[in-house]
Amino acid sequence: MLSVSSLVIFGLTLQSRVSATILQNGQVKPTNYLDTRVDSSAYLFTTYPANATEISYKGRWDSKHVSWWSAPGIKFGYTGQTVAISFGNLTTNGVLVAYRISGLDWSFTNVTGKSTHLLVSPSTPGAASAGPISPWTFEMRVTNWAFGVQIEAVHVAAGERLIKLPDFDRRIEVIGDSLAAGMYTSYEGLSNEPEPWDFSKSPPADLVIINIGTNDRNAHNNVSTFAYIDALTKIIQGVHGKWPKAQVIVMSLWLGFYQSGNTYFPNAPQGWVSEVSQMVNWFNSDYLRDPVVYDGVTKKSFKADRSQVGAFVHYFNTTGIMQHNDIGPQWHPTDVGAIKVASHLQQFIRVKFGWDLHATGPEVFHDTQYWNDEPGY
Ligand SMILES: *[C@@H]1O[C@H](CO)[C@@H](O)[C@H](O)[C@H]1NC(C)=O
Ligand SMILES: *[C@@H]1O[C@H](CO)[C@@H](O)[C@H](O)[C@H]1NC(C)=O
Ligand SMILES: *[C@@H]1O[C@H](CO)[C@@H](O)[C@H](O)[C@H]1NC(C)=O
Ligand SMILES: *[C@@H]1O[C@H](CO)[C@@H](O)[C@H](O)[C@H]1NC(C)=O
Ligand SMILES: *[C@@H]1O[C@H](CO)[C@@H](O)[C@H](O)[C@H]1NC(C)=O
């Protein structure tokens, strides 16, 4: 079965930590996050091991409870007003993690291996509130590429306990490259060489989003239209074979912009625009009745078992969502560009499949709340 890691294509292997500066509107962004490391012997804790069933692991975690890829996280309910986490020795020093309680804002802290970090205490804003979310929930997400944390143990105050929360009832699998993973965004999330993902341990995905091929489109890599479309077709067939009920969204590629005189234009050639949309039609047309031509080859349509899903391949046209200033100097979407694409994709999913966006949902962003502090200035 395909795994995301085997499909991610980018020309970088970064093993060690590189110190870098985040620029926010041209200014250096402060990264002096709260130091949460404590001496655990000074606390009385009730301790749960990393494999406690009360802890839900979201996204990619390996068998040693080490995090991989974009924004993997944990979530659980708890009693009391204290949450601490001990990180194992497979944690990269200084990894930035985001964490929050219930529906409140995210906080950030850098964590290190072989140490315990106190993330919630009675003085944490909201920790001692009376609700209304009950039980209190704790969520953590791991940021940064090639970095990871290893969960060793989770602690609550002595006599308190963790509570297993109901699982999410839907799953999305993203098959992508550095663009989908968020390379060069503030909290980028790439990885190197994780252990193979054990698909059998998670329920099937409801939705598979494919955004892959920008590197193949690069002339330097000399990938023919046929090779690209053929590979993409096989990926979709593989997904459908494994998860026959999954819907598949194929995103059109974008390749940046160039300035021409007094305006900007998208770089040409674009990413196999007509071929990809023809491939989607091919999946959805009636078998044997509507042959589709692409790359000069006439193909009979895909013989899918549509009894469960109907036409299951969908084309998400990204044209017009990003403009030239949504692409950073290193050819990847900026934070705003990434959020624009994600927001449009959410709306596409809502309109197409009727999924809900909740008024007080989980989508709270950090460091995106800029405002003018004076009226009429
Ligand atoms: C957690 O790991 C320990 C040590 O390997 C094992 O004894 C225990 O059964 C595991 N617990 C669960 C819930 O898998
Ligand atoms: C890391 O932790 C594991 C489990 O506690 C231990 O067996 C191993 O020796 C440690 N490795 C290093 C390099 O400290
Ligand atoms: C915390 O993480 C940020 C983002 O990676 C980094 O810029 C900063 O240097 C880290 N701080 C420490 C103390 O490790
Ligand atoms: C590109 O690939 C084609 C087909 O495999 C091959 O014939 C050609 O020599 C390649 N061109 C370069 C510049 O590598
Ligand atoms: C994508 O959208 C653009 C802008 O609306 C449109 O010109 C283009 O034809 C669309 N592409 C496909 C394959 O539908």
Automatic annotation (TrEMBL):
Species assigned in the record: Podospora didyma
Alphabetized UniProt keyword annotations: Signal
Protein name per its UniProtKB record: Lipase, GDSL-like protein
A single MF term (Gene Ontology): carboxylic ester hydrolase activity
Signal peptide: 1-20
Matches recorded under InterPro entries: CtCE2-like_dom, PCW_deacetylase/CE, SGNH_hydro_sf
UniProt xrefs under PANTHER family: ESTERASE, SGNH HYDROLASE-TYPE, GDSL-LIKE LIPASE/ACYLHYDROLASE DOMAIN PROTEIN (AFU_ORTHOLOGUE AFUA_2G00620)
Gene3D superfamilies for the chain: SGNH hydrolase
